[in-house]
User: What shape does this take?
Amino acid sequence: MSAFDITEGGTPVDGAAWIAGGTTMVDLMKLGATAPSRLFDLGAQRDALSGISETSDTITLGALTTMADAAKHPAIRGLTAVHTALVQAASPQIREMATLGGNLLQRTRCSYFRDTRQPCNKRVPGSGCPAIGGEDGHHAVLGGSAQCIATYPGDFAVVCVALGAEITIRASDGSERKIPVQDLHRRPGATPHTETALQTGDLITAIHLPKGGAQSYIKIRDRASYAFATASAAVVLHMDGAMVTSARIALGGLATVPWRAATAEHVLKGSMIDQKTAFAAGEAALQDAHPTLTNAHRVELGIRAVAKAILSARGNSV
Assistant: This one.
């Protein structure tokens, strides 16, 4: 069996999982929200799958690089949105353990998913979703379905989507492929238990971040530290003087996946950025939201997060 194998005799082990920093996996196992049949420890491969390198247009991070190490690196400090997302995530202690690959795959903080006394279509397919019509104040206003409205909780993946980042995936047969981070997470649809495009045995080995563009990440949360986003926005602008030639915008804390706001991007293209344009883009980003009475306030927070991120990115343009 190779160092990166999760198979026995070439056959993927059903229900097995990788574990690296363990900051999400161990937590969910303690709650009983997940119960892998086997854990394959990646700790011995940290040197092979860690580190940061760069070319003229790309920064590549090994998937086992910790969030703390990435945030300290000069190349990452030059990517304003990435650095901001990393230092605002979790606590300093968790960032010292949590890996970038694992962070991309962190699972929802939905209280019904984490409480095994409750039914949950994501945890037990077909058992129901009590969040729908229940206590849904922290649930998704974008990308939900009749089966699930659980919110994707992370920061780093949202920025990766805005950047147009890619990941390298190693399959159990040793082959490798690249996909955009935007294609990693799946909306729940009728199968909320299928959360990503990864197949059994797949392992994220690297994240590739494009350089360039004026960027910003804005995170609105209930308290100033160790809190997940109530609404967040990552913006990357390419400018010709004062005019936007292209934009990429992604939302966090509001959707079932890191959410690409293409409609808002079209609002900005060819425009001069001012407060009116920024808020128009924010409204476009949330135009397809489906809020309830208890989470409708988060639509306005999302609009404001997008507008503030656009204005902040404009200030970072050179």
